[in-house]
Amino acid sequence: MPNALLIAEPEPATRVFLSRHLAEDGFAILEATAGGEALALAERERPDLALVGDDLPDLSGAELCRRLREGEPGRSWDRDVPVILIGQPDSDAVDRVRAFARGCDDYVGRPFHYEELLARIHAVLRRANGGTHDRLEAEGIVVDLATRRVTVGGEAVALSGKEYELLVKLAGEPSRVFKKDELLRDVWGFRSLGRTRTLDSHASRLRRKLAAPHGTRYVRNVWGVGYCLLDN
């Protein structure tokens, strides 16, 4: 089930841009143009994360974060919902300190790079979902992050360094389709993607090594998009 993401952003072009791209990257999107509307959605829909612009018409992003954290009489939203605040173009260190003091989990200034914002969203979600756990599990696969040991159906599987890193990336959100450029950036550190078969060849080898006797197929290629560990 996709993570629900609340976008509280009054500027139409920015809101549409974020909603479109984040939906393409696997999130269920909720939109608000003002703080009061965002609070109502937070209470009714229980999003997994809130992405909040700092120029809402009825209150600042930092104030919205404070109200989410402190709660209000008769309201029942999740007061621990992760919040990433998108600051105004002229924001400075003081604005950031005040935002963190009011309970935001991360702060991104404008103008922002989408890929960096996406990475921050995933990082905050991992922390909120207990990302410090020392193992990942998905449909018979167990990855012990402390020892780097991988088993499928209880049988150990030997992986190369990059095969292991690719598996860890995919197993973090096993049903999510990761774009090829995202995997090349996060696993291999590529900045200029160009034409490369590196990802495809590693994914093919990883698929063969994880082949399960009970019929589960891992590392699925979604044509024209990228890879996911499991079918959606």
Would you mind describing this structure in some detail?
Strands 2-1-3-4-5 form a 5-stranded parallel β-sheet, with helices on both faces. It is built from 8 helices and 12 strands. The chain has helices at residues 12-24, 35-45, 61-70, 93-101, 114-128, 161-172, 180-188, 198-210, and strands spanning 4-8, 28-32, 49-53, 83-86, 106-108, 135-138, 141-144, 149-152, 155-157, 178-179, 220-222, 226-228. α6 crosses α7 (180-188). The N and C termini lie close together (9 Å). By secondary structure, it is an alpha/beta fold.
| Helical stretch tally | 8
CATH architecture of the largest domain: 3-Layer(aba) Sandwich
- Sheet with most strands: strand arrangement: 2-1-3-4-5
Radius of gyration: 20 Å
Largest sheet properties: 5 strands, parallel
CATH class descriptor name of the largest domain: Alpha Beta
Structural class: alpha/beta
At CATH level 3, the topology of the largest domain is Rossmann fold
Q: How many beta-strand elements?
A: 12
Shape: elongated
Tell me the series of helices and strands, N- to C-terminal: EHEHEHEHEHEEEEHEHHEE
Q: How many domains, as an integer?
A: 2
List the helices and strands and how they pair.
Elements: E1 4-8, H1 12-24, E2 28-32, H2 35-45, E3 49-53, H3 61-70, E4 83-86, H4 93-101, E5 106-108, H5 114-128, E6 135-138, E7 141-144, E8 149-152, E9 155-157, H6 161-172, E10 178-179, H7 180-188, H8 198-210, E11 220-222, E12 226-228
Parallel strand pairs: 1-2, 1-3, 3-4, 4-5
Antiparallel strand pairs: 6-7, 7-8, 8-9, 10-12, 11-12
Helix pairs in contact: 6-7, 6-8
Features:
232 residues, 5-stranded parallel sheet, 8 helices, 2 domains, elongated, 12 strands, 19% strand, Rossmann fold, Arc Repressor Mutant, subunit A, alpha/beta, 40% helix, 4-stranded antiparallel sheet
